[in-house]
Amino acid sequence: MNERNEASSMRPGRPGPTRIRRLTPEEVRERAADGLAALLVDAVDSGASVGFLAPLERERAAAWWSGAAGARDVWAALDPAGRVLGAVTLVRDDKANGRHRGEIARLVVHRDARGQGLGRRLLAAAEAHAAATGLSLLVLDTQTDSPAERLYQGCGWTVAGTIPDYAADPAGTLCATTLYYKRLG
């Protein structure tokens, strides 16, 4: 998929296609205060361990997205009205010896849109872009025993190991984190 192309698929029981789009830094900033912030707040409210404790204030979520603009590649899943249903970011390693790798971070899908393959499509878009732009290795981490692990394993990611008490979940409880990697190409 070309980095600016939009991919569509019909969502069961809902009108119109959901598009996966790579957002420009300007689009990330424009959507930070509304759609992207609401998405991140929803993820934390529904228990996703994505770096924030609950309750996550919308302003803090918007500030995080504004800071991500330009520092990360961002893809969003958009419904026909332009509502953000999901997002994923790709962070490139800027070290001289690590320019071949990147990190998938903040893969989130709004609870109203889960179970429709959006996470898989967002991940595929980021992976395809990474490969097309010369990256040969991706890494990510996720809370051990979370639903996200099924997604990553189903998409061909390999477990590298587990670290106990690595991060707190939204409620503040320390949880294990599983590290994954995927070779591209």
Q: Describe it for me?
A:
It is built from 4 helices and 8 strands. With 185 residues, the protein is an alpha+beta fold. Helix 1 runs antiparallel to helix 2 (58-68). An 8-stranded mixed sheet has the order 1-2-3-4-5-6-8-7, sandwiched between helices. The chain has helices spanning 25-45, 58-68, 118-132, 147-154, and strands at 7-10, 17-23, 73-78, 84-92, 101-109, 137-143, 158-168, 174-183. It is globular, with a radius of gyration of 16 Å.
List keywords for this structure.
185 residues, alpha+beta, Aminopeptidase, eight-stranded mixed β-sheet, 30% helix, 34% strand, globular
Instruction: Report the sheet with the most strands, covering strand number, pairing sense and barrel closure.
Output: 8 strands, mixed
Element-level helix/strand string: EEHHEEEHEHEE
Number of discrete helical segments: 4
CATH uppermost class: Alpha Beta
Give the overall shape, derived from the CA principal axes. globular
Task: List segments where confidence is low: pLDDT < 50 over at least 5 consecutive residues.
Answer: 1-13
Percent of residues in helical segments? Answer: 25-40%
- Beta-strand residue percentage: 25-35%
- Mean pLDDT equals 92
- Distance, first to last CA: 14 Å
Number of domains: 1
What is the structural class? alpha+beta
Summed up:
This protein is an alpha+beta fold. It contains four helices and eight strands. The two termini are 14 Å apart.
